[in-house]
Amino acid sequence: MHSYRRWLPAIALVVLSLTWGYTWVLAKQGLQYAPPFAFAAERCVGGALSLLIVLKLIGKPLKLVAPFQTLGVGLTQVAGFMIFQTWALVEGGPGKTAVLIFTMPIWTLLLAWPLLGERVRGKQWLAAASTLTGLLMIIEPWDMHASLFSKFLGLMAALCWASGTILIKRLRATTPVDLLTLTAWQMVLGAVPLVVLSLFVAEPATQWTPHYVGILGFMSVASTAMCWWLWIYILDRVPAWEASLSVLGTPVVAILSSRLTFGEEFKVTEVAGIVLIGSGLVLLSLLSWAASRRNPGAHRDLAGEKK
């Protein structure tokens, strides 16, 4: 049982990467039926309602703990992230500009060291270097045709996600709060600015077809409610920088699913990037396995650091 529980964060990361990765394909399809900001608001409202219903059904507490800290998480990791991500898609299209949000691990790595005291040590740098180099190969910042403004918006989305990641780690380190309750309230508080924005921005009306309802249902329940809960669960068990690197499996899944779904050809740099990211993630897993073999009695995170 102990061995099984030790691998739960890794299992959660696999589920998270697969679900969030395929979400990019569904988002591209969903935007054919709904305008960008309305789509973001509808997705977050659906996610918030799903989490509140689950909390009620399983008897979890609905009380909002640490309201100001939770509001900060909701405004950065939900509202800010979704607004800048959607705005970047509007300004620059769904190309490499959107993928800029996956520079999030770089900002998390930089912020986690001074703010959380989470340092990258020894062979962990090899995993970090391999994974981040693979990310650059996929983004190709030297060959982006989108406007400078759309690139800025994509980077702001990444910074919002990284900031929310740091805020969650600090909150969980000082305040006992149920993970599912925290996820629900960050989604509720983050959805409010999105709803307000969708009401004030002039956009076409949403086409409520059965296909769109199905897409919105999956994105609300699975990719928003479930995945944000999994993300907080992972952050609660591994260093912020490591969780951020590990979630780079998401753009790999996004590229693979997009190419296969829409019949697009793979680029050499994309293949190289996927290999490098995969190598970095495998190295993180091997470091964890080696650490557990050296000291089976200690609980360690995915990269072998004592907890």
TrEMBL record:
Signal peptide: none annotated. It comes from the Bacteria. It is found in: Membrane. The chain crosses the membrane at residues 7-25, 37-58, 70-90, 96-116, 125-142, 148-167, 179-200, 212-231, 243-262, 268-290. It is a multi-pass membrane protein. It holds the Pfam family EamA. The keyword Signal does not apply. Its main location: membrane. One of its GO terms (cellular component) is membrane. Belongs to the EamA transporter family. This is EamA family transporter. It comes from Dechloromonas agitata. The lineage of its organism: Bacteria, Pseudomonadati, Pseudomonadota, Betaproteobacteria, Rhodocyclales.
